[in-house]
Structures are given as C-alpha cells and as structure tokens.
Write a structure and sequence with these properties.
- Strand 8 and strand 9 form a beta hairpin.
- The chain is built from ten helices and ten strands.
- It has three domains: 9-118, Tetrapyrrole methylase, N-terminal domain (Cobalt-precorrin-4 Transmethylase, domain 1); 121-228, Tetrapyrrole methylase, C-terminal domain (Methyltransferase, Cobalt-precorrin-4 Transmethylase, Domain 2); 234-276.
- The radius of gyration is 23 Å and the shape is globular.
- The chain has helices at residues 25-33, 42-51, 66-78, 99-107, 120-128, 145-155, 171-182, 206-215, 234-249, 255-266, and strands at residues 9-13, 36-39, 58-60, 83-86, 111-115, 135-140, 161-167, 187-192, 200-205, 223-228.
- The protein is 40% helix and 19% strand.
- Helix 7 packs antiparallel against helix 8 (206-215).
- With 280 residues, it is α/β, with parallel strands linked by helices.
- Bound molecules: S-adenosylmethionine (SAM).
- Residues 17-18, 87, 89-91, 94-96, 119-121, 165-167, 191-196, 223-225 line the site of S-adenosylmethionine.
- Residues 17-18, 87, 89-91, 94-96, 119-121, 165-167, 191-196, 223-225 line the site of S-adenosylmethionine (SAM).
C-alpha cells in the first residue's frame, strides 16, 4: 500500500435483472464515482452504463481470468483506487464470478462493501408463496440429465424449499427430471422473466407445471427460477433418502447389507426399502 494513501474500497454492486429502474440511487452514485468498474461482460455493462450516462473505465473480470485479475485489483485498491464489481445482471457472486476477488481483497485487509439490489432467486422467492424462512439455493443444475438426476437425488429428502436457476434450453428437461426424482405431486413455482415485459409466475404440482411448459412455447422462453417445495414430514423424507441410498448401495453390496446400511443412515424402516432397486 502506498504510504499515506488510504486504500480504496471494493464495492459489490447489484444491477437490475430486467427492469433498469431497479438500479438503486446508491448503485448509480457508486458506479459514477469509482475509478473503474470490473464487469463480467464489458459490452453488456457498457450498455447499462450508457443508459445512465456513466462513463467509467471497464475491466473485464470473468471466470477465466478471475484468479489473475484478483492480484491486479488488489494492487489498485491498495494504491488508493476504489473499484466497483458488477455482473451481467443481479447480485455479483450469486451464480456469477467474483468470489475469488472478494476473497483476495479481504485477505489483503481491504474494505469490501455491498451495494445491494436485485437478485433473481430472492425476487422469485418473494412472490412464490412457498415456505421461505429457510431455503436452499442450488443455482444451476448440471447440463447432463444423468448428473442432474444425481444432484436432484441428493436433494430429494431436503425439507427446505429448493431454489434453482434454469435456462430456456433446459427448462422442460429439468422439469421432467424433477417429476421423476421429486414425484409428480410435489408443489413447485416457476418464476419467468421477472421484472420484464413477459413476467410470469406459475404454480402447481410438478406434473402440472411440466405439462404447461411442454404445451406452450412461450413458457419455455426467457430466464427462469424454479422453486420446489421441500420434502414433507420427516418420515417421508427418510423414506425417500433411504430408497435413494438403497438403490445406490445395492449396486455394490448384497441387498440385505445395502438395506441395513441405507436404513441405518437414513432412519427409514429397513423393510420399507426392499424392492427399491433390488430385493432381499
Ligand atoms: N447474479 C444473478 C442474480 O443475482 O440473480 C444471477 C446470474 S445467473 C448467471 C443468471 C440466471 O438467473 C438465469 O439463467 C436465470 O435462471 C436467473 N435469472 C436472471 N434474471 C432473471 C429474471 N429476470 N427472471 C427469472 N430468472 C432470472
């Protein structure tokens, strides 16, 4: 750090997820006054800035150069420059780059300060009408169906509301996988294009929602947050987990051992697990 020069602050600035009027006055003020803005896609951010008449230098910061850029950013902050970090939309670091830079800045004893604002997951939860005192944010599911089902399988007995990000390419496939892993009757909510012209919030069982999305091309367009109600009571959750474990373990162990272990780990009754992926 240069002697006598106070270090700068790294501001983590949330930007709109659709409606530009959602940029907060404090975000605007910060973006106008920092020495430079670290942006995921500089062309995209340039458009946002020019809409607001802001002309600040941009530094590209994406998942491929984040490690290398962290050092440069720490140097500039240490030298007294305050910088902002934005992503393409919403809150940086939430399914977006930035955590390595924040970690590096904090490790160097520099001030990192949030300018909060839009976040698709939180906006979606706020209109879903699902239990939201406790929830689990799962971000994007894997692109391949086998890996996706595996990830969902590990969440099948989760009792908190599940929150996923999904793209238009995979929304129908993901809903189909959710039906098969969580069951047709699990309640879910799909929040699409929030704060934009075609904002839609659909709720129903996974079977109903999947059918609705399959039947209407428009419901497969845009950006999505999918929220799935958590597994029901403890007994049901234990049974789902026990069956999942039994199916996995019985690939490698005799069925009786697999059932014993699955029952012990999940708390489900051993007998209820037989016939799920094998028989004793
Ligand atoms: N950092 C962002 C945030 O705070 O929400 C998320 C970035 S992530 C790369 C982009 C994903 O967020 C999209 O694929 C979609 O799942 C979700 N998303 C972003 N904007 C949205 C919107 N307006 N409506 C619904 N989902 C949105």
């Amino acid at each position: 750090m240069a002697v006598g020069t106070p270090a700068g602050t790294l501001f983590i600035v949330a930007t709109p997820i659709g409606n530009l009027a959602d940029l907060s006055p404090r975000a605007l003020e910060t973006l106008k006054t920092v020495a430079a803005i670290c942006a995921e896609d500089t062309r995209h951010t340039r458009q946002l800035l020019s809409h607001f008449g802001i002309d600040r230098p941009l530094l590209a910061l994406h998942e491929h150069n984040e490690e290398a850029m962290s050092e440069r950013i720490v140097e500039r902050l240490s030298g007294g420059d305050s910088l902002a970090l934005v992503s393409d939309a919403g809150t940086p670091l939430v399914s977006d780059p930035g955590y390595r830079v924040v970690r590096a800045a904090r490790a160097a004893g520099l001030r990192v300060s949030p300018i909060p604002g839009a976040c698709a997951a939180i906006a979606a939860l706020s209109v879903a009408g699902l239990p939201s005192d406790r929830f689990t944010f799962e971000g994007f599911l894997p692109a391949k169906s086998s890996a996706r089902r595996e990830r969902m399988g590990r969440l099948a007995s989760e009792t908190r509301t599940l929150v996923f990000y999904e793209s238009s390419h995979r929304i129908a496939e993901s809903l189909a996988d959710m039906r098969s892993v969580f069951g047709d009757d699990r309640i879910a909510v799909i929040a699409r294009e929030l704060t934009k012209m075609f904002e839609t919030v659909l709720d129903g069982t996974l079977a109903e929602l999947h059918a609705q999305v399959e039947a209407d091309d428009n419901q497969r367009k845009g950006e999505f947050v999918v929220m799935v109600q958590g597994a029901g009571d403890d007994e049901e959750a234990q049974l789902i987990e026990g069956r999942r474990l039994y199916a996995k373990l019985s690939e490698h162990l005799p069925p009786s051992t697999a059932a014993k272990l699955a029952a012990e780990i999940s708390g489900a009754p051993r007998k209820a697990l037989y016939g799920q992926g094998g028989t004793e």
